[in-house]
Amino acid sequence: MRRFLVAGNWKMNTTKESGAQLAQALASEVPSENPAVEVLVCPPFPYLTTIGDIVTGSGVGYGAQNCYHEAPGAFTGETATEMLTDIGCRSVILGHSERRHVLKETDADINLKVKKALEAGLQVILCVGELQSERESDQTEAVLNTQMTGGLAGVDGAAFGQIVIAYEPVWAIGTGLTASPEQAEAAHLYLRNWLKDQYSAEIADATRILYGGSVKPDNAKELLSQENVDGALVGGASLKAELFIPIIQAAVELSAE
Ligand code: 13P
Q1: Is any ligand 1 atom within 6 A of the Cβ of residue 40?
Q2: What pLDDT does 174 receive?
Q3: The domain 5-255 is classified under which CATH number: 3.40.50.140, 3.40.640.10, 3.20.20.70, 3.30.1130.10?
Q4: Is there an atom of ligand 1 within 6 Å of 121 CB?
Q5: Is the CB of 114 under 6 A from ligand 1?
């Protein structure tokens, strides 16, 4: 049985104070002895330590939204995986669509980061997803195949204990458009079969595949009920405790069923 992961990607949002208040609200809501659902927040880099200190001891983990693939050194503006583990950060989001499409990261760039983060012992949340035009031209599976093949090139099956896949259709991110549960399930099933073909049935069965794209309290339960949806990567709704907590709650309720 795969354990739900509900992760909040704060993107380039919050202040130190508003982030701290949000983290406090979540930490008091998610007890450390709540193994049913894994909960993670990914604040902006400048606030990672502050937020990390607040959630430490609760059931909320903290992760980064990016990292660089080189060891510490002369790479102005970048963040090393060594720095993330140094501050107790245990996860990193890689290949997010905003980094692919706004910052022009390629699958090759993402692959270097994936391998470095895995080496550092971080949990990697590898994001994949198609553009609206790609969906409309029936390219969804081809795009997912390219992104999975590129992002995971050279990654050994033994690393999969540290890998989570996030399916985030780009057209559903921050738009209020959500993939229907059927669309999400179809893409997740494709990804699970991809893992089975490229790795093994055991890896496919154990690897969590999150859905991301306008997840809200009113659609969370239906999305999370899909057989191959193992959690949510939440953007906008993760910035308000009153929206994020009901999404966590939906996962907790489904785990108890
Ligand atoms: P929204 O939930 O705001 O659509 O963002 C999704 C996302 O990009 C999470 O990584």
Answers
A1: no
A2: 83
A3: 3.20.20.70
A4: no
A5: no
Atom of ligand 1 nearest to the CA of 127: 10
Q: What is the DSSP string of the chain?
A: -PPEEEEEE--S---HHHHHHHHHHHHHHS-TT-TTEEEEEE--GGGHHHHHHHHTTSSEEEEES--BSSPSSS-TT--BHHHHHHTT--EEEES-HHHHHTS---HHHHHHHHHHHHHTTPEEEEEE---HHHHHTT-HHHHHHHHHHHHTTT--GGGGGGEEEEE--GGGSSSS----HHHHHHHHHHHHHHHHHHT-HHHHHH--EEEESS--HHHHHHHHTSTT--EEEESGGGGSHHHHHHHHHHHHHHHH-
Distance 23 CA to ligand 1 centre (A): 18
The domain locations on the chain are 5-255
| Tens digit of each residue's pLDDT (9 = 90 or more) over 75-90 | 999 999 999 999 999 9
**C-alpha 168 – ligand 1 centre gap (Å):** 8
Catalytic residue ranges: 96, 168
Identify which has the larger pLDDT, 76 or 32: 76
Q: Tell me how far the alpha carbon of residue 122 lies from the centroid of ligand 1, in angstroms.
A: 21
pLDDT digits (tens, 9 = 90+) for 139-187: 999 999 999 999 999 999 999 999 999 999 999 998 888 899 999 999 9
